[in-house]
Design goal:
By secondary structure, the chain is an alpha/beta fold. Helices cover 40% and strands 20% of the residues. The protein has 28 helices and 29 strands. Strands 3-4-2-1-7-9-10-8 form an eight-stranded mixed β-sheet, with helices on both faces. The longest helix is centred in the first third of the chain and has 27 residues, at 91-117. It binds adenosine-5'-diphosphate, aspartic acid and magnesium ion. Magnesium ion binds next to loops.
Length: 839
């Protein structure tokens, strides 16, 4: 029983994380931040060192002497540089440098021995590579000490006892438990951190025997078991254990929690993130393992433990092992003959060949299984020998070897009893025309494995990953951000405001770029994304009145031609954002047919003739594209969204009414307080609330368009022409030049004064109200009771009232700023983010 009070935390730093002295320093910081709990540290060799040492071992017998010396020299320099960077000049550093020197002198001696022997045994190979872990552990211990933490290097041979199978040693649990407790507990009790080289164990002869590639994971769990750890953190160069190997499946995601059996299955079937036997020492112990990102120590990574519930999803992850050969034993004489399978596997066992997948046709006509390719010939020979008699009697046809195979394993405890998982796997492969050579499903139903040709393995993994939507259902953070390209149609005030907002979006899971800007003259396009600097330069040129076509790398084109040019590039997820006030329907059709989604602030296309707006919706449906248009009504206010949410939740919207024009709202609320109409217009112009010609607002056509868009949502089948719209511009003023109109504004005041007075006598105020239902649209000035919610709206705010089945007596009201470049851009941005999905 350990005497220290709290159970320790075992940290293992993987090789990929330990690239150089900066990385070692970062690891030191991680350890120091956990210093309040007893800590055990296990380290791998620095990145690439094990591979380099193996090269030394292999080439010592055959390679050229000079290049070998150079390789050894490089490795030595790399360690010396790290030592100099990490340790201040003094006794500690000199001691470290002399360890390094001795280690490489010993390596040179081993190499020259190998040159004479010309035979590399696993025993010597282990002796060669063991220095990688030993040196990095010594470096780590010294770096901890020099950072002020108490640390002590403990050699693995004093802790880990094994069966002595060089290159692939299996640990002896009881002996390791005893030795590790005896050695580590006193160190922990005095508050120091033992730092242990991973990957290495002791043979009974006392020589070093390695635990197999990736063996440091196993060292960590062995020590965790021995000291009764609270948890194990495996610090790696990935954000956690992922749904698939990120090098093969780019949209692999972190799995937040994984049952130990699932993790073991993945490791065993080739997931190169955990040593295949790393989970065995912790079986039955409640010690969770965390696979954590070295780059981001605050992130939780993946928890692997026996306490994790299977979860609802059938498949959690997949993995593949390449370099497999499929061996098939076939014969009519096998039917009903007992012992063929047993003899097959006994023969393989006799040659120490491990079989990873077995399948036997129920006709018992054949048994097939996969083995590592390098062992295929050996396996075949052993079976030919075993079944010599049967082959001679033609009871067994022979033993067939198909090399170049890969096993793809699909893993998840949740597939137990879930029908259709195998069908999903095969469906995904069939859709890609990928041939399945063999399949196996364990009776545990934790794993379905398929053998495919190695050339198909990557494609197979991506297809299965997509078919089970593993990038979504396993949750967790995203490995590679989703990418979306924004094509801005219109680069005026709103476009420029949006460009700024896009630059500030902070969603780690999403990379948004403006790929193109289009104006009436032409476009500027960069499939890699236009940089923020360039966008702001373009914006300032536009402000000065220049046209995009005339700017550097600008192309003259119509909007339609610009869209088809841009659509010719392989963009990931292009979205066309229409911020114009033009008739753009042709360009929008073009965008939809080329696979772009649409976000509209432009009201015109949807308020155009029914044939035009219906055609857009139809094209979108036919092409599987989406059109979002929140900003066409109420700028950034969630009006369209609210409508959809009500309907989706089973409500019925009868009527929507309210104030839809910030400009008219402002003018009429000023007028209602007694300010003359002409003055209200002039101040609205000065505040920038109106179009350059205020008659564009006063005509009511803009409100009518918004009303029509809302009415069409409710099912209205009609045209703008049929809409009753009250214009606030008297007939005589409609065709005057702007300056004449402005000069004569005062002529309108007496009429407005009279209207206001009449309203006041009825305790009412004037508002420009739109009211829509599925059957009618009315847009115009109304005298609304001063007690009504509409009367309370001041300034340029919008207010919308929904009357629905559910919200009848007490309608649902949405109020807020309904105009302005900033809020409109924000509404557009929301739609873009909604298209991106996730959060
Ligand atoms: P360590 O540095 O601890 O030895 P490894 O290199 O052994 O770490 O394991 C991490 C590597 O495993 C990652 O870089 C990744 O490429 C690979 N890998 C394969 N499958 C997965 C998976 N399902 N999840 C995470 N990483 C994986
Ligand atoms: N350094 C060893 C290897 O590269 C062990 C490990 O990293 O876990 O396999
Ligand atoms: Mg590893």
């Amino acid at each position: 029983m350990p005497r220290h009070r709290r159970a320790p935390h075992v940290h293992k730093f993987g090789g990929a994380s330990l690239a150089d002295s900066a990385a070692v320093r970062h690891a030191v910081e991680i350890i120091r931040s956990h210093r309040r709990e007893p800590t055990v540290v296990v380290v791998s060799a620095m990145a690439g060192v094990t591979d380099a040492l193996l090269t030394v071992a292999h080439e010592a017998g055959t390679g050229d002497e000079r290049s070998l010396a150079a390789l050894i020299g490089q490795l030595r320099t790399r360690h010396e540089e790290a030592a100099r960077a990490l340790l201040p000049a003094g006794a500690g550093r000199s001691e470290m440098l002399s360890h390094i020197r001795e280690s490489f002198e010993e390596l040179e001696a081993l190499a020259s021995g190998l040159r004479k022997l010309r035979e590399l045994t696993p025993r010597i190979s282990d002796a060669v590579i063991s220095r990688g872990e030993r040196l990095s552990a010594r470096l780590m211990a010294a770096a901890l000490e020099s950072a002020g933490a108490k640390a002590q290097y403990v050699d693995a041979l004093d802790l880990i006892h094994t069966d002595g199978a060089f290159g692939q040693a299996a640990p002896d649990f009881p002996a390791t438990d005893r030795a590790a407790q005896r050695t580590l507990n006193p160190i922990l009790n005095r508050g120091a951190v033992p730092v242990v080289p991973g990957f290495l164990g002791a043979a009974s002869s006392g020589e070093v025997a390695t635990l197999g590639r990736g063996g440091s994971d196993l060292t960590a769990t062995l020590l965790a078991r021995a000291v009764g750890a609270r948890r194990v953190s495996l610090w790696k160069d990935v954000p956690g254990l992922l749904t698939a190997d990120p090098r093969v499946v780019p949209d692999a995601r972190v799995i937040p929690q994984l049952h130990a059996r699932e993790a073991a299955e993945l490791a065993y079937y080739g997931a190169k993130v955990l040593h295949p036997r790393a989970l065995i020492p912790l079986a039955g112990r409640r010690i969770p393992i965390y696979v954590r990102p070295f780059e981001d120590p605050t992130s939780p990574g993946t928890e692997v433990s026996e306490a994790v519930a299977p979860g609802r999803v059938p498949v959690k992850a997949l993995t593949a092992a390449g370099g497999q050969a499929l061996i098939t034993v076939t014969g009519n004489g096998m039917l009903g003959v007992p012992g063929i399978a047993a003899r097959t596997f006994a023969a393989l066992h006799g040659r120490k060949i491990s079989v990873s997948l077995i399948s036997q046709a129920s006709s018992e006509h054949s048994i097939c299984f996969s083995v590592p390719e390098a062992l295929a010939t050996d396996a075949r020979d052993s079976l030919m020998l075993e079944f010599q008699g049967e082959i001679a009697r033609r009871e067994i046809d022979g033993v067939e070897v198909s090399p170049g195979m890969a096993t793809v394993a699909v893993v998840g405890l949740g597939m137990h009893g879930t029908p259709g998982v195998a069908a999903g796997v095969f469906g995904a492969l069939a859709a890609g025309n990928l041939n399945v050579v063999a399949i196996a499903q364990g009776s545990s139903e934790l794993n379905i494995s398929v053998v495919v040709s190695a050339a198909d393995a990557a494609d197979a993994q991506r297809r299965i990953h997509a078919a089970f939507r593993l990038s979504r259902i396993a949750g967790g953070s995203v490995i590679r951000p989703e990418q979306m390209e924004v094509v801005l149609l219109g680069f005026g005030q709103i476009g420029r405001a949006l460009a700024t907002l896009l630059g500030r979006v902070n969603r780690p899971a999403l990379s948004l770029r403006v790929a193109a800007v289009i104006d009436r003259s032409g476009f500027v396009f960069d499939p890699e994304g236009i940089s923020a600097r360039r966008l702001s330069a373009l914006a300032s040129e536009k402000r000065k009145g220049r046209r995009l076509a005339d700017l550097p790398r600008g192309h003259p084109a119509t909007a339609v031609d610009a869209v088809s040019h841009i659509a010719g590039y392989a963009l990931t997820r292009p979205v066309l954002v229409d911020l114009t006030a033009d008739d753009t329907s042709a360009a929008l059709e073009q965008a939809l047919t080329h696979g772009m989604d649409l976000v509209l602030a432009n009201k015109r296309p949807l308020a155009d003739r029914q044939t035009v707006s219906n055609a857009l919706w139809q094209t979108a449906r036919a092409r599987g594209r989406r059109i979002l248009h929140e900003a066409t009504v109420g700028a950034g206010l969630p009006i369209i969204d609210t409508y959809h949410k009500l309907v989706e939740s089973g409500d019925r919207v009868h009527r929507i009414e309210g104030l839809l024009s910030g400009t008219l709202g402002y003018v009429l609320s000023e007028v209602s307080t007694g300010i003359p109409f002409s003055r209200a217009i002039r101040s609205a112009m000065a505040k920038g609330y109106t179009e350059p010609d205020p008659r564009d607002d006063l005509s009511g056509i803009d409100v009518a368009r918004k009303a029509l868009i809302l009415a069409r949502l409710l099912g209205f089948q009609g045209e703008l022409k049929q809409t009753a719209v009250e214009s606030l511009v008297p007939r005589w003023a409609r065709s005057l030049p702007l300056s004449d109109f402005l000069a004569r504004l005062e002529e309108l005041d007496p009429m407005w004064q009279r209207r206001i007075e009449a309203a006041r006598r009825q305790a009412a105020v004037l508002r420009y109200v739109a009211s829509v239902s599925a059957s009618e649209i009315a847009v115009g000035v109304q005298a609304v009771p001063s007690t009504s919610p509409l009367a309370a709206i001041k300034g340029s705010d919008n207010q919308l009232v929904f009357v629905t089945d559910r919200y009848k007596a007490n309608p649902l009201v949405i109020t807020g700023p309904g105009a302005g470049a900033e809020v409109t851009a924000a509404g557009v941005l929301n739609d873009i983010l909604r298209l991106a999905g996730g959060s």
